[in-house]
Specification:
Length: 137
């Protein structure tokens, strides 16, 4: 089974910890928001609930039918979180389709999707800049 480890970054992005060097959040509000967002997100995208959600203080682990479930939690708007989450899941589902079902997401997979992750990282930075600009206007 492929399991996604979901953690917080300074952009509010929650993703498998192998992809980014980030410190987990111990913010219980964020963990609760993440849990709710994952449930909502998987229900919208998959039209069914997640198979497994495990919480361990500062970590949320999600698995669904052996696939990686990714979620992005935004401290600003749920719409932005869902938009970015959809993009990530699309990319990862396309990439993982060609992989053996038993593969564990690891650094080897990172090499295959490095360009996509770089593009998404730039997009996240841009969205945050735009939001900050709008907030102060």
């Amino acid at each position: 089974m492929i399991v996604g480890y979901i953690l917080e970054t300074n952009h509010g992005l929650l993703i498998h910890n192998k992809f980014f060097n980030v410190k987990p959040s111990i913010d219980t509000h964020l963990v609760a928001s993440a849990f709710n967002s994952i449930c909502l997100f998987t229900k919208e995208i998959l039209d069914e609930p997640v198979e497994e959600i495990l919480t361990n203080k500062n970590r949320i682990v999600v698995a669904h039918n052996g696939n990686v479930m990714l979620s992005i939690i935004s401290r600003t708007t749920n719409a932005m979180a869902r938009q970015l989450a959809k993009k990530f899941v699309k990319i990862f589902s396309e990439k993982l389709q060609t992989e053996d079902k038993c593969i564990i997401v690891c650094d080897a997979l990172l090499d295959k999707i490095k360009n996509e992750l770089d593009e998404l990282e730039r997009e996240i930075v841009e969205i945050n800049k735009n939001y900050q600009h709008q907030s102060y206007v």
